[in-house]
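Notebook p. 47: complex prediction with FE2/S2 (inorganic) cluster.
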Amino acid sequence: MATDNNKPKRRSQAWFGDEGKSGFIYRSWIKNQGYPHDEFDGRPVIGICNTWSELTPCNGHFRELAEFVKRGVYEAGGFPLEFPVMSLGETQIRPTAMLFRNLASMDVEESIRGNPIDGVVLLMGCDKTTPSLVMGAASVGLPTIGLSGGPMLNGKWRGQDIGSGTGVWKMSEMVRAGEMTQQEFVEAESCMHRSKGNCMTMGTASTMACMVEALGLSLPENAAIPAADTRRNRLAQMTGRRIVEMVKQDLTIDKILTRQAFENAIRTNAAIGGSTNAVIHLLAIAGRIGVDLKLEDWDRLGSEMPCLLDLQPSGKYLMEDFYYAGGLPAVMREVLQYLHRDALTVNGKSIGENIESAPCWNREVIHAVSDPFKTEAGIAVLKGNLAPDGAVIKPSAASPHLLQHRGRAVVFENIEDFHARIDLDELDVDENCVLVLKNCGPKGYPGMAEVGNMPLPTKVLKKGITDMVRVSDARMSGTAYGTVVLHASPEAAAGGTLALVRDGDMIELDVSRRRLHLEVSEQELARRRAEWKPAPKPKRGWYKLYVEHVQQAHLGADLDFLVGSSGSAVPRDSH
Ligand code: FES
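Predicted complex, structure tokens below:
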């Protein structure tokens, strides 16, 4: 196929630019969708990587969103081609969406690399759909821009705002404590999620949308515009326009996802009171792009940052309020002194240029640095014999009086054991105990489920107690709260010390000293370790591959053979 010699040779021309049999095949089959011949003339081909699925309700509006991206791509002279990838619905998929994050990332990576694409738009929303797409795209390295689906409108029930997840945890505890009827509980179910979009608390989906924006991987305001607000569609159109320019400028993803960008994201996560899940996802993304990010960086960079955002689960408001108050640019402007202002973003400007004049319209929602919502609100990384490679806690979501605590362990061997015994009258537990849950880490569950925020025993709840220290190798939902120590590494299923804890052992938590200690002698631990037997491993399929290759939480829980990038070259033809 003849091309204009003045035009740069695009990657997609290795498919569409051929004059012989191969070019005929590559073009002709795509023409069956009605595209004219000049679409293949060397203009940027933009892949729209879509996680639409009716089983991922938070991404249920993505076909509509993709149409607005296409408008923008056409306006800028590009050729958009939408493609589906594995979509992970957090609330639906068993045993946990996290088990499939890395699988979805492989789908994304190979779908981008194997196809005639010059640049890619990532349509992301529900929790794992963001990290899986960014991880996959990072391992290819094309010009890449993110577009989030936006949060749902605030949940409304009986005159009050109720937030995704956070409201469920609260109300289910109220039902168990006899403070709410089952009928009221069911009524609230229909009122919480009343529009398209992702969870409207600062849960993992909204946190990761903020991380994408803070990393500079999306246009400004991407994180908070509600899905139902037409400004979301406008942003989609602008995103489509911009990716075409990014291809022309060869603005590849590695130029955006730098060490500086990750440091900005970690600090921003503290300022928004973001989810602990961001720790694992950013570590995994950094591993793909080749940035040397460590678990300890979260504590070093973020733990002394103030939290400015009064949003559930740590606070009161919801994402809709956040957008009307100014959204993420207003938060980032407020903490600009802590950020690398020169970090490049996808619109070709630095993050500093993007946010330096961002207004704040509501100081009750977005506090000033001089009057923070919470001080020292980042994620604390704990170490000790119970988690030699680290564990995390989100102090802003914890009870201040429990941040230094010593208590007797009440141990559950796995999630089934927990469900079977937590509400028994004969369970020997009180509010000073430490609930310990084993075998819920990456290999143990498998997939590191969000079960770390264990519900409290009914007999403790009935005393009016709402929080206890809890320790596990699991994650917790970004919408959850409490004095919950998570991601203990190595996990129990990998033979970590957590596997050796027994009922009655004393555990010391001291967040100010970053300490998580099991008061059992080394000799006794060695004796217990000699008795410990690992659980049988899965025998086939993805579970087997995953358990054999998943890394521990402090490394991001990626598969060992997926760390890094393979670039975008595929020299061998298919025919
Ligand atoms: Fe999809 Fe919360 S369940 S974003």
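Notes: Residues 58, 90-91, 126-127, 164, 198-199, 203, 205 surround FE2/S2 (inorganic) cluster (CB under 6 Å). The longest strand covers residues 404-412.
Next step: compare against the earlier run before touching the bench.
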